[in-house]
Amino acid sequence: MAEVLGIACSPRVKGSDSLYDSLSGIMLQGVLEKIEEVSNLTCETVQLAKLNIRPCRGCFSDIETRCHYLCDCYDDDFKPVAEKILAADAVVFATPTYMFGTPGVLKNFLERWISFKSPPVDRKSATKSFDECYDIFDKLYSGEITATNPLAGKVGAMVIAGSELGQDHVARELMLILNLYGFVLPPQCFVYHTGHSMQSLEDVRDCFYQNTWLANAAEKLAKSLALTVKLVKGVEWPGMAKLVRGSR
């Protein structure tokens, strides 16, 4: 497993509906290359648009359909990507700006994250019944099982592209979610680029490597992320189990 996971969140996939990679995907590639250049960290990329990730069903809000760890609602691709995140030391999100915010493919993925904070339940024995729910509470209280936040202490970063306004909204939204799930955000944890909707495809493809500001920002992000990974690796962070027992 790679130490740095890049998650490409653009719905545009080269070779399907697009002649070239998305701008955010090109920016992600440049940042990951710079990370490998300035450190000994290994990188891997996944493209959400190529995966089958279903929307959250809202189980967490209903005691009778209790949300389970890593979401067992569907046989889709959420769990394999979630396991890659769990194995990584850092995650870099690359996203375009759609309707002044994140694209739907990323929103669907992030909404399934609620299951990271749920108690681990064997999928084969899961019933999502009242009896199972009360049994989980008893086991949490007794310490037989624990509900931790497995993402706490991972390093997060992001690259954001867009042709109009909204990159700041995307950055704020992602930083809030990542912080909520315990990610450590290094200084200058995001890079953004504002193009324009009438750019030629050739310009979009090459703009990252021709833009001095982007290149410098990518290098700063890479160095900051690598240093933060080194600083926090092996640090133990408080989990949810103590909070659950302490609330009774």
Verbal overview:
With 248 residues, this protein is of the alpha/beta class. It has helices spanning 23-38, 78-87, 104-111, 130-142, 167-180, 201-210, 212-232, 241-246, and strands at 4-8, 43-47, 90-96, 155-162, 190-194. The chain has a 5-stranded parallel beta sheet with strand order 2-1-3-4-5, with helices on both faces. Strand 4, helix 5 (167-180) and strand 5 form a beta-alpha-beta unit. Helix 1 crosses helix 7. The protein starts with a strand and ends with a helix.
Summed up, what is this model?
The protein is an alpha/beta fold and 248 residues long. It has helices spanning 23-38, 78-87, 104-111, 130-142, 167-180, 201-210, 212-232, 241-246; strands at residues 4-8, 43-47, 90-96, 155-162, 190-194.
**Helix content percent band:** 25-40%
Radius of gyration from CA coordinates: 19 Å
The largest pleated sheet is described as: 5 strands, parallel
Mean pLDDT figure: 81
Give the neighbour order of strands across the main sheet.
Answer: 2-1-3-4-5
Question: Which stretches are poorly predicted, pLDDT < 50 over at least 5 residues?
Answer: 240-248
Helical run tally? 8
Structural class: alpha/beta
The span between the termini is 39 Å
Strand content of the residues, in percent? 5-15%
Task: Give the SSE layout.
Elements: E1 4-8, H1 23-38, E2 43-47, H2 78-87, E3 90-96, H3 104-111, H4 130-142, E4 155-162, H5 167-180, E5 190-194, H6 201-210, H7 212-232, H8 241-246
Parallel strand pairs: 1-2, 1-3, 3-4, 4-5
